[in-house]
Amino acid sequence: xxxxxxxxxxxxxxxxxxxxxxxxDYLTQQGYQVFWEANGSKVVAAVKNxxxxxxxxxxxxxxxxxxxxxxxxxxxxxxxxxxxTARKHDVDQITGLSIGADDYVVKPxxxxxxxxxxxxxxxxxxxxxxxxxxxxxxxxxxxxNAKSRAARFADDEIKLTSHEFDLLWYxxxxxxxxxxxxxxxxxxxxxxxxxxxxxxxMRVSNIRKxxxxxxxxxxxxxxxxxxxxxxxxxxxx
Length: 237
Description:
Elements: E1 9-13, H1 17-29, E2 33-37, H2 43-50, E3 54-58, H3 66-73, E4 81-85, H4 90-98, E5 103-106, H5 111-123, H6 129-133, E6 136-139, E7 142-145, E8 150-153, E9 156-158, H7 162-173, E10 178-180, H8 181-189, H9 199-215, E11 221-224, E12 228-231
Parallel strand pairs: 1-2, 1-3, 3-4, 4-5
Antiparallel strand pairs: 6-7, 7-8, 8-9, 10-12, 11-12
Helix pairs in contact: 7-9
Protein name: DNA-binding response regulator
GO molecular function, one term: phosphorelay response regulator activity
Domain OmpR/PhoB-type: 134-233
């Protein structure tokens, strides 16, 4: 188990008092500083007050549901959002990931598994050596800056989430090479690919849509069906 500093703050948005207390107690034992909000209508204010490093967001909340909250928080909150729900439908998981959630856990979940997922998400927000060693990448009119975590096409900023930038940077570092889903999951997502997780697919789709608004094309990141993706270096002129 990794050593976690008390400055690592987690906000739990969960209306089940018993479950919230169990999670809070366990995470506190692991060294996290934990805050709790049960009312969905108060979550946005709690995020502003607490400034958490990670949010555990239940889907079925009174006041405002988790999907609505995720949509509102994602443009302004740069940290990881972990959706938490008892609903097992694939469509719910796809919805959560497509609107900006970074992971999706179905109840019930073992506390050790939840902590592992939390640690994996937090690791992805730590500076990577590869980013430190190479501060910027440039392909035609596309410029990526690791220090400022900014993507620009010509004079326009492409507004990417932190996780979208991580993925784009990783693919750009391997420009022209096939990068498999297994490799992306291990190096970028922070967990092994289970064969069904669509997190990477959804993020690539989001990146393509945002890029297409500026480039007019959506083929600069090619899909190699059944294998992975290729960043096309000469597609950004």
